[in-house]
């Protein structure tokens, strides 16, 4: 890891610990229920002092990506990510029998994907990757991944649009982290924090460890 990336991680860790001890911690108890859900997930994973929560203004989504990054001290727009819930519209329960009993190797109906805002999910490559989890036991024509509707995504995760977090989900659906995120330097990501006005930041490795996220090259640069 480059020296500047290592130094950034040291700074990030120090800021996280400080915020967990000072007045920010007291304010957390007044935050929305979705954020409380994320905080419980962080606490369960032992990440309370190695992650940061940012409260952003209502105008946040009107800003260009570079302004959003600057407002939270993110190194670049590439460090801003989101979690989306993808649904296989052609999923059938019978396919699970073909794929075996291992949950990760089933023909999964719902999958969470963490992707950068500067990238888009390549559905074709995602399909290829998911098929490999079941040793290609299910034919490709039984896959059609699309974004799950907001109601379904909220039912699964407990979070509303623009606040979806991979930490603290109501149901721990399988998670894929786009490979480009693992190459970020410094290796820190900003994501939904349980509410539209809150963002969660943590080291990439902490994200992978706490969610058992799978790494896959399933994204392309946004046009």
Automatic annotation (TrEMBL):
GO MF annotations, alphabetized: aminoacyl-tRNA deacylase activity
Domain of life: Eukaryota
InterPro entries: YbaK/aa-tRNA-synt-asso_dom_sf (IPR036754)
Name recorded for this polypeptide: YbaK/aminoacyl-tRNA synthetase-associated domain-containing protein
Native species: Coemansia reversa (strain ATCC 12441 / NRRL 1564)
